[in-house]
Write a structure and sequence with these properties.
Elements (H helix, E strand, L loop, with lengths): L11 H10 L1 E6 L3 H15 L9 E4 L22 E5 L5 H7 L2 H11 L3 E11 L7 E5 L13 E6 L10 E3 L14 E2 L2 H7 L1 H4 L1 E3 L5 E5 L5 E3 L8 E10 L15 E3 L5
Antiparallel strand pairs: 1-10, 2-3, 3-4, 4-12, 4-13, 5-8, 5-11, 6-10, 6-12, 7-9, 7-11
């Protein structure tokens, strides 16, 4: 699925930027052919043409407001307006992307020899839809793990200009850790303290481009005002010995990745 030569991409500068700023662009790494195949598979999953037991669905709210999201509803029928589909590793095509050689090299450099998967998600903003996703961090009590996660790789399946709700980040915000122990949405008073609006950086990308995103860097995205869907894959990797700390249910067992290539 990688473009020729991308498995051997020089990483030193990219990883230096990632550590300093909390994000770094990898450039175009996914081939056009593979992007088309994954877009088709994403639509097939949203329309129920292909189904996997355990695949998690969350539909956009009817109002388009993040505050109005319905949690726990899951599959609500064929629709291209699902906000996210989680557990993409159940699908062999998406698993191939999750475990590609470039991701393997990055994860081993940042996380160590053994790597696990926390989640693999299709992030979708349908044509002239989606929602304003507020400033947030991808960690906290609700993640239920014994150490802070630090590596996510986000790959655009469609062009994601600012008008389609591209990712926006606050560079360097990951250095101070979580804005609150709960993680997730960053409170308004914390945003005012650092003037997040003034410091934000937009990351428009073309289909096939990837971005490294630190879990603690503050990031957000807007609505899709274009006529084209804005689909992307977000993969959160963990050090292989990370453990689940949740108490109310049985602890999760995180899937090991890349093992067949070691």
């Amino acid at each position: 699925m990688l473009l020729p030569g991308r498995s051997d991409l020089v990483l030193d500068g990219v990883l230096k930027d990632f550590v300093a700023n909390g994000y770094a662009k990898l450039g175009r790494v996914l081939s056009s052919e593979a992007a088309a195949v994954l877009r088709e598979r994403a639509d097939a999953l949203m329309l129920g043409e292909i189904q996997y037991p355990g695949l998690f669905y969350q539909h956009d709210s009817e109002s388009g407001r993040y505050e109005d999201l319905e949690f726990g509803a899951g599959w609500v029928g064929p629709s291209r307006n699902y906000r996210k589909l989680e557990k993409l590793e159940l699908d062999p095509l998406f698993l191939e992307w999750i475990e590609n050689p470039l991701h393997r090299r990055i994860a081993h450099r940042l996380l160590g020899k053994k790597v696990s998967l926390y989640r693999a998600v299709l992030w979708n903003k349908a044509s002239r839809a989606g929602m304003d996703l507020p400033w947030h961090q991808d960690d906290g009590v609700f993640w239920g793990i014994d150490r802070p996660p630090s590596l996510q790789i986000w790959t655009a399946l469609d062009d994601a200009p600012e008008s389609a709700g591209c990712v926006e980040v606050l560079p360097g915000s990951h250095h101070k850790g979580l804005a609150s122990p709960l993680g997730g949405t960053v409170r308004g008073d914390r945003l005012s303290e650092v003037d997040a609006e003034a410091g934000r950086v937009s990351l428009p990308v073309k289909a096939g481009e990837s971005i490294l995103i630190h879990n603690h860097v503050w990031h957000r995205s807007g609505r899709n005002e274009t006529a084209q869907a804005r689909r992307a894959i977000g993969i959160a990797y963990l050090a292989g010995d990370t453990r689940c700390t949740r108490k109310r249910r049985s602890p999760r067992e995180f899937k090991r990745v890349f093992e067949e290539r070691e």
